[in-house]
Amino acid sequence: MELWYTENQTQNVNFSMKVKSHLYSAQSEFQKIDIIDTYEFGRVLVIDNWTMVTEKDEFIYHEMITHVALATNPEIKNVLVIGAGDGGTVRELTRYNNIENIDMVEIDELVVKASIEHLPFTSNKLSDPRVNLYFEDGIKFVKGKENLYDLIIVDSTDPIGPGEGLFTAEFYTDCYNALTEKGILINQCESPYYSHNAYEMKRSYKKLNNLFSICKAYQYHMPTYPSGHMIFCFASKVLDPIKDLDSEKWNELELETKYYNTELHKGAFSLPNYVIKLLNSEN
Amino acid sequence: MELWYTENQTQNVNFSMKVKSHLYSAQSEFQKIDIIDTYEFGRVLVIDNWTMVTEKDEFIYHEMITHVALATNPEIKNVLVIGAGDGGTVRELTRYNNIENIDMVEIDELVVKASIEHLPFTSNKLSDPRVNLYFEDGIKFVKGKENLYDLIIVDSTDPIGPGEGLFTAEFYTDCYNALTEKGILINQCESPYYSHNAYEMKRSYKKLNNLFSICKAYQYHMPTYPSGHMIFCFASKVLDPIKDLDSEKWNELELETKYYNTELHKGAFSLPNYVIKLLNSEN
């Protein structure tokens, strides 16, 4: 028997991967969680039939969601991560000795449990003594916090289901208040290519851009996400990801990375015209 | 009835698009040619079951294969295009008044005929008076030519079938000889992500790098090609695509582009570590 997992990237586009075995399946309070082993991509975490993480290319996503901020401000000490149940974002963060504390807030404990059991390649640093796990709603967690975090990473699923509230102006305002003066917010901002993703990209960017004095989108190549063309938003009260990039200091750390480097850091902020136009459009 | 076209991107990965209608199908002397109309991507040219051009994102490929060279040397006059039967590369080239002559050599006349009939969005400038169409083998066409072209664009299919000879050291040497002193070669160099594509990317890059004093790979986001992460190689005897980029002059032309801009030009040469490692690896 041939087993294939198909993601409906749009109503009219399917992406399918051949499956070795279906390792895990569970319905949590929030969502359907599946883990499969595939021929091309290794182990894959699927939530509500959307591909979240694959063993083959998770390094791209997790390096790009973390190192851009850490190379811009090498003095980040206190970090809040929202979502990121697979642990990959925390894994990259724990490589920095300057980071003293990581609060990770994941609404769905079952995602973390499944990842610890089946995805050791991302979850293997969740036991780092600097990591505090909270199984709570990130929206509530951040509310009322002031001048606390040097970095907030919103490593969310798409803005449907439990991730929806993570794309609102109210939530972003709470993040703004929770950040220190030099604080940085990194937000998963979808993709410019398919219209429903482009709509969400614009929505998030606009809200962040209204709130923060510096808000810049950067791109990365993520083959297993729809279109492969993905965007993160970098938002800050004072730090500019290009002008304040401290390449020398970051390179002195001698961290081995498979995707990120400080030249790519700069290049990633140079976006195609159609993406710039979308981000600046009124509607 | 639902009609879907599926591309087998690897043995274990399928990409499928929902089809409105199957507009054209023919077997030429060289290959199977199909044109379909799809819900998400508009009209799509498929050769031997590989996606060649889609109406939705062909602009990305055709802008990136042309404007990088033209912005590096604004004095390009004589151009050779090999392959490119859909006409999209020629369409972008005809936007430059400095270009006086374009020789386009496509081995398969039927691709051009089908494109003129069904893909007006790419083929609409093939009738430009500066364009000379040759339905010949590009490998033979370039052999023996010396110091003639300011730009050669190898807009090939994958290195299987009729495109195979376009990836050999002998062919690249003939191109080298056919180029003027400031000549530039732009070569379609596949993708770093799936192993069979990465193998071809390395092969092409190494051959060009051995031959030309300047050889640099640049990347672009092409959603309908496997992995969406695509590479062109820029090779030249004397011109460097970053140092010799004349941003001011190119921007004075006021060409409207949907993907390319001179900041993106610079950024596109900043590659991920895993791609750099592949390009520089011995095997």
TrEMBL record, chains A, B:
GO-annotated molecular function: spermidine synthase activity
Domain PABS: residue ranges: 2-237
CDD domains registered for this protein in UniProt: AdoMet_MTases (cd02440)
Reaction catalyzed: S-adenosyl 3-(methylsulfanyl)propylamine + putrescine = S-methyl-5'-thioadenosine + spermidine + H(+)
List of residues binding S-methyl-5'-thioadenosine: Q31, E106, D137, G138, P162
InterPro entries noted in UniProt: PABS, SAM-dependent_MTases_sf, Spermi_synthase, Spermidine_synt_N, Spermidine_synt_N_sf
Pathway(s) served: Amine and polyamine biosynthesis; spermidine biosynthesis; spermidine from putrescine: step 1/1
Keywords: Polyamine biosynthesis, Spermidine biosynthesis, Transferase
Gene3D superfamilies in UniProt: Spermidine synthase, tetramerisation domain, Vaccinia Virus protein VP39
Family: Belongs to the spermidine/spermine synthase family.
Oligomeric and partner information: Homodimer or homotetramer.
The protein's name: Polyamine aminopropyltransferase
Originating organism: Clostridium hominis
